[in-house]
Design brief:
The protein is an alpha/beta fold. It has a 4-stranded antiparallel β-sheet with strand order 2-3-1-4. Strands 5-7-6 form a 3-stranded parallel β-sheet, with helices on one face. Strands 8-9-10 form a 3-stranded parallel β-sheet. Helix 12 links the parallel strand 8 and strand 9. Helix 1 runs antiparallel to helix 7, helix 14 packs antiparallel against helix 15 and helix 17 crosses helix 19. It is elongated and about 120 Å long. The relative contact order is 0.05.
């Protein structure tokens, strides 16, 4: 019996001790949590220094203004000081825009004053120090009035008061040694890089596993447009929610690897071309899904292996130069390819015509070599080396064919015209070849001119040089390229068709433009329901 009573007493005492201990632990944890929340509020508030405006009386001399400046600078709470003249305020465009058409009227009723703009140190968190400082500088000779954001100061003082209350509750057991502010470091070049992409029409999305509010603030400081539009990915339950958020939101927080992939896929389904940057294993699914994936060399090896592009120096600021180089390559290849395609389309169709109608093929290899060198080889080499940062639009093959077709059709129409003259007036075959070579050269030079727009000094020099080289080879080196001397009727045919070349190419280009617009709208538009 005694042993049973002793055991029950021990159990009861253990229960009491455990209950008290748990209660104390929970109280301490709650207090620490409250202290941390209050400290974070103070940290957020201290990130923006209190700004004080000290306006001066009218008519002060430079010596009196200097005296006021010295007295303000001597104050311990002043971190920075800057003089702002009333002329600067009047000329400030943003200041004028604020009052619109009523600016002059408001200025007459409330004349502006010269002022000193002050920012205060963190010690301004002490209400007594701040109140004493404001009262002191208000009494300085020459000071008209003092203003500062009172609501912000009250919020700061209230937060500091909460921390003091917690310290009192702890009975001095906790001693605050310092307040440490933690923030993500923004690279100096990041805002400029995001600004470049915004100017190029690129929408930047931030996808992170961190708290969306934190990510949104970092994105705002980095200069990403619409960074205030953020969402917690844990609230996106269905694919429809993800697709809607992908279009409307800019910052995504608490995102899982699978959700990253779904976000990229949703943007692609919406018709966007998506580039994805990442450096971790959790980014691999999204990197593989993106149209263009970019990894940092300092990141995971798996991410580097899954990406199209790896930034060896891990500098995000290298992307504008990557975009510029990509645009140069694609745009210049499109221009050069269109020059090649003109001859290919034209000669293919001409071969079919001469085959079906048993007509002589009007070109010799030497003549084609002349045209190829001066209208394809040399200009394509020069144009391919030039910088070109124009935005890429459309698809490669349709763009190239659309560029080449007007010149190819012009070649075909004019050369067929020459062949009709050949049949009607019994022109010699060597004369036919010479005429067709001249027509093909003229149309080729017009195509180079169209491809080179807008013209710069290099392109002008190239055009002049090519035209001069073609004239010299055509008229002064005929034997080298198996050309014949033109008689007067043949020369007249060349001049007439050569003058028509520009008009024929213009009509072909205009017709293709209308046909393209018709295709984009649909050849057979749907009838309206009655």
């Amino acid at each position: 019996m005694k042993d049973d009573k002793r055991l029950k007493r021990k159990v009861r005492n253990s229960y009491i001790v455990s209950t008290v201990s748990i209660t104390l632990v929970l109280f301490l944890l709650g207090s620490v949590g409250y202290l941390m929340v209050a400290a974070m509020k103070v940290a957020d508030t201290l990130q923006e220094s209190i700004a004080v405006t000290v306006e001066l009386e009218n008519g002060l001399s430079d010596e009196q203004k200097d005296a006021v400046n010295r007295q303000l600078t001597a104050e311990d709470l002043v971190a920075t000081i800057a003089y702002v003249g009333k002329e600067e305020k009047i000329e400030d465009a943003e200041f004028r825009k604020m009052f619109a058409s009523e600016f002059e009227e408001i200025l007459d009723e409330n004349p502006l004053l010269d002022s000193f703009e002050l920012t205060l140190t963190a010690a301004s968190a002490d209400k007594e120090l701040l109140d004493g400082f404001i009262a002191g500088i208000s009494k300085i000779a020459g000071v008209e009035r003092v203003s500062y954001p009172a609501l912000m100061a009250e919020r700061l003082h209230a937060t500091v008061g909460k921390i003091r209350l917690v310290l009192v509750l702890f009975g001095g057991a906790l001693l605050v040694i310092s307040l440490i502010l933690l923030s993500n470091k923004i690279r100096p070049e990041a805002p400029q890089t995001f600004s470049y992409f915004a100017q190029q029409g690129v929408r930047t999305k931030v996808i992170s596993g961190d708290n969306p509010l934190t990510v949104s603030e970092v994105a705002r400081r980095a200069g990403i447009p619409n960074a205030e539009k953020f969402v917690d990915a844990r609230t996106l339950k269905t694919d429809v929610d993800i697709a809607k958020a992908a279009e409307e939101m800019t910052v995504f927080g608490r995102v899982t690897p699978d959700q990253k992939k779904k976000l990229v896929a949703a943007m692609k389904r919406a018709g966007h071309t998506v580039a994805m940057t990442g450096d971790g294993v959790n980014d691999v699914l999204a990197l593989r899904e993106a149209d263009c994936s970019i990894a940092m060399a300092s990141g995971s090896g798996v991410a580097c292996q899954a990406s199209h592009i790896v930034l060896l120096d891990s500098q995000f600021s290298a992307l504008p130069s990557v975009v510029a180089e990509g645009r140069r390559v694609i745009n210049n290849i499109e221009r050069s390819a269109s020059l090649y395609l003109v001859k290919n389309i034209f000669t293919f169709v001409l071969s079919l015509i001469t085959l079906f109608f048993t007509l002589p093929y009007p070109y010799t290899p030497a003549q084609l070599s002349l045209v190829n060198a001066l209208t394809i080889g040399i200009p394509s080499f020069i144009l391919a080396m030039e910088p070109n940062e124009n935005r890429i639009s459309g698809r490669f093959m349709p763009n190239v064919i659309y560029r080449a077709l007007p010149a190819a059709l012009s070649d075909l129409i004019l050369v067929v015209g020459v062949m009709l003259f050949y049949l009607a007036f019994h022109i010699k075959e060597d004369m036919l070849s010479t005429l067709c070579t001249g027509i093909m050269g003229i149309v080729g030079l017009l195509m180079i001119h169209q491809t080179s727009l807008p013209l710069n000094k290099l392109r002008k020099a190239m055009l002049i040089g090519l035209c001069a080289a073609f004239v010299v080879c055509y008229f002064f080196l005929p034997e080298l390229f198996t050309l014949s001397a033109l008689d007067k009727p043949s020369l007249l045919i060349l001049v007439v068709l050569g003058l028509l070349a520009f008009s024929v190419m213009f009509v072909c280009r205009r017709g293709l433009r209308k046909a393209k617009a018709r295709l984009n709208k649909g050849i057979f538009p749907r009838r309206k329901k009655r």
